[in-house]
Design goal:
The model has no long low-confidence stretch (mean pLDDT 89). The chain is an all-alpha fold. The longest helix is centred in the middle third of the chain and has 25 residues. It is built from ten helices and no strands.
């Protein structure tokens, strides 16, 4: 726990090498104790720090490990979150590929991002978890709007790197999230799909 706390503090202040050092030490301790619940926690910490430092390959490796572990556990809610984190790992690779103008990698990893996000949504729909359904619809709506992943480069060039057009799906998921949060009287949750919609329409006015 002490190593995890130190890793978190170092990560907060951007001292990523020290954060990684403490997270790796934390994981080695848990592995020596054969503490399965804490081992997965250690891998989650590593996934987070690898994402922050831009080591997309290792971030993806950790996300795949976590997904397999959660699937073996049989806990569907944790499996849904693991798929979401895996999608986030693919998205990191996609955004980097957009920045580097690597069309093939960008499209492949964008497709995998969407695939993982859909799997997460289907699981929470099966669980009939309204709060998570709102969350995943909102997040999927954000992912479907490829304009959200532009870098500081030329926007017209970047928007054409991703070939898929999911504008219809983006709107559908944002509106579904809006409906769910409205039914739950969740005044905070409802702000996110409204923000997505505002971004969606702004992007279309500015870029398309």
């Amino acid at each position: 726990i002490a190593c995890e706390n130190l890793g978190t503090i170092y990560g907060y202040f951007g001292i990523y090498d020290k954060a990684l050092e403490n997270y790796l030490h934390e994981l080695s301790i848990y592995e020596s104790l054969h503490d399965s619940s804490m081992i997965i926690r250690g891998h989650q910490s590593l996934a987070g720090i690898y994402g922050l430092v831009g080591d997309f390959k290792k971030n993806l490796q950790e996300a795949i490990f976590i997904k397999k572990w959660m699937e073996a556990s049989g806990d569907k809610q944790k499996i849904a979150m693991a798929y979401w984190e895996l999608g986030s790992a693919y998205l990191g690779i996609c955004k980097n590929a957009i920045k580097e103008r690597d069309t093939s990698s960008a499209n492949l990893n964008y497709s995998k991002t969407i695939e993982c996000a859909i799997k997460s949504l289907y699981i929470v729909i099966e669980l009939k978890d309204s709060a998570d359904m709102g969350l995943f619809h909102k997040n999927l709506g954000f992912y479907y709007d490829k304009c959200n992943f532009l870098t500081d480069g030329d926007p017209i060039t970047e928007i054409n790197i991703i070939k898929a057009n999911f504008d219809k799906q983006a709107l559908e998921n944002d509106l579904n999230a809006l409906k769910i949060y409205s039914n739950l009287n969740d005044s905070l949750g409802i702000l996110d799909p409204y923000t997505n919609l505002a971004l969606f329409y702004r992007h279309r006015g500015d870029l398309l």
